[in-house]
Amino acid sequence: MNDIECMSLALQLAKKGCGFVNPNPMVGAVLLKGGRVIGTGYHKRYGAPHAEVNALAGCEESPEGATLYVTLEPCCHYGKTPPCTEAILNAGIRRVVVGSSDPNPLVKGKGIRFLREKGIEVTEGILKAECDRLNVVFFHFIQTGRPYVVMKYAMTMDGKTAAYTGDSKWITGDAARENVHKDRLRYSAIMVGIGTILADDPLLTCRIEGGRDPLRIICDTALRLPLTSRIMATANEVPTLIATSCKDLQAQQPYLKAGCRILSLEQVEGHLDLSELMTKLGTEKIDSILLEGGGILNWSALQAGIVSRVQTYIAPKLLGGSGGKTPVAGLGVPRPEDGFFLTNIEVTHLGEDILIESEVKPYVHGNY
After folding, report:
1. Per-state percent for the chain, helix, strand, coil, to nearest 5
2. Active-site amino acid positions
3. What is the pTM of this model?
4. Can you give the residue ranges of the CMP/dCMP-type deaminase domain (predicted)?
5. 251-255 long-range CB contacts below 8 Å, 24 or more apart?
6. What angle (nearest 5°) sits at the alpha carbon of residue 324, between those of residues 318 and 329?
7. What is the pLDDT of residues 61-70, one digit of tens each?
8. Is there a smaller number of Cβ atoms within 10 Å at the N or the C end of the chain?
């Protein structure tokens, strides 16, 4: 096997940790000796041993003189676990092949430098683009201290997210909805506005077998979440946080008693300060959010500059009606050139539906 093949295998292994390692990165490792794979491993769960240690522990023979392929630069500091660089050195590894460099200030080239200083050959940048993409959430979070926000919505080909009656079940088909549940597993939290709760009474859970429910974040400025909602009925089972500007302690009591957490925020132009919310969530190590809100919350999130990625599910149907809901509401921009520009477009077919994924182009000093 060559470097590309071994790193490809390491990438596939890394993906197995999706949804269980946050806010840590997904990492895979492969050990090659004499042209044969003698050990593999991946980071399985936050706080558990890292990929390199798992690969060494599962070796079929002595790893001395072997080559280690790892999707992310090995750590060189004590955290939840000891540094992987020490384990690599002690195992007698001859060569280390790295996909991504680690932007974490505690690592950031120090792991690679340590290995080279100890006489271990290091090759960098093998399948770097693929390895970087795997951990876009981790890179964003470790560099900003704020969650990576993915704004997701489903609409028809005429841009409607619901019929004029408000009925939205279902815009897309089974394959698209299954993909949404995979993302609910992948990202740490799911966020909606009170309007979505009042209209749909959703559960906001992950239906993937063996999966993990995301933290449910309800943006509810005036604390109107119905005590009879399915969110309230399951708050003791699924972590639930209500972000609100209501400071009435008596009004908060039923929600606290039901098992919800309440996070008090200030308002900006009559809405919750979403930038402040992101900062507070970051301190709680919430590294990523799937934003499944309605048009008003989506507009507020874009205005606040917190959206990094947009997922647009498009169904091959037309609903019509001037009263049909659209994915982004609010006041809107006065001119097309003032819009939020998207880049790095990717298109995926999911059954009869289409998923368009794109990154929000940063807005700096009046220019994109």
Report:
1. 30, 25, 45
2. 52
3. 0.92
4. 1-123
5. 251/223, 252/223, 254/227, 255/223, 255/225, 255/227
6. 120
7. 999 999 999 9
8. C
